[in-house]
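Box S2. Input/output pair 1.
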Amino acid sequence: MKSIETLPQVTASHLVKSVDLNHHGTLYAGRMAEWVVETGFMTARSALKCSPSNLVCVRLHGMSFRKSVQCGETLVLKGQVAHVGRSSLSVRVVANLIDADDATPYPTEGYLTFVYVVGGRAAPHGIDVVPPESPEARRWWDHIVNERQR
């Protein structure tokens, strides 16, 4: 069995351009959602080492926006596996400004769940992990477990 902390992470960067802005002149939430799902998909695919055709996003567990992002700023999105089920894999994606330090709160956080599919049906993906030991990773794991019980 693997530790969840050893699964691959994915980092993606995006320059916020005028085409990405809303009517307030800040980053459009829909564009951020697109980037979060994209980063989550790449993270899940990297962890499962599968073809894109074997992966489908089934749930966005919410996305929090804590800070406006301006045109010309660069966002760095980081995807990490938060929970592993039999045929599912949940990912936590955070976005922060490229020049932010570790103490700076990130503008956006979201959780997504993907399902491994074969022939259009959910199938076991074959990754066995133990629940995480680190408090931070355990908090993400528990968040997904609580969401699934709703």
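Box S3. Input/output pair 2.
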Amino acid sequence: MRRIAFLLIVVATVAVVIASTALTAGQADEQAAPAFLTQIPAGYRDWKLISMAHEEGNLHSLGAVLGNDVAIRAYREGTIPFPDGTIIVALHYRNVPSEENNKIFGRAQSFVPGAPTNIQFEVKDSTKYAATGGWGFGHFQNGKPADAAFMKPCFPCHAQEKAHDLVFTRYAP
């Protein structure tokens, strides 16, 4: 009887050690995960339009803001905070005059997207990105992700938009 009890204690101890090692390893992986994206989410060009954006100053850009199905549902239902799985993408282009259109209009009034400048993502995962308000941020130029130093100001800037769960873009149905 003593042997069985001793054997059960040994088995239980080993199980606890293995479980705690696995949990600790999982936490280390999560803590090591960057708060920014290093890969472009697949299929984003097929997502639905949320809104358009025009930024002047040094950016001088036009943007199309798209969302995956989770994002679109949250926008339509007015869900704040956004649910995990929400992905929002902004496709940015140079804002350029359309010479072709302006000839027809008889004056300079038409602007169209020119060369692409960058693609930016916001991905909601409240566990993975807990340190940055539940959002991971991504910035890509020519398909390449920005480095950690470039991404550092994303969260502090978005954190100023707490009332809208760190998201600047409003839905334009």
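Caption for Box S3: The helical segments are 2-32, 69-77, 99-105, 148-151, 154-158. The longest helix spans residues 2-32.
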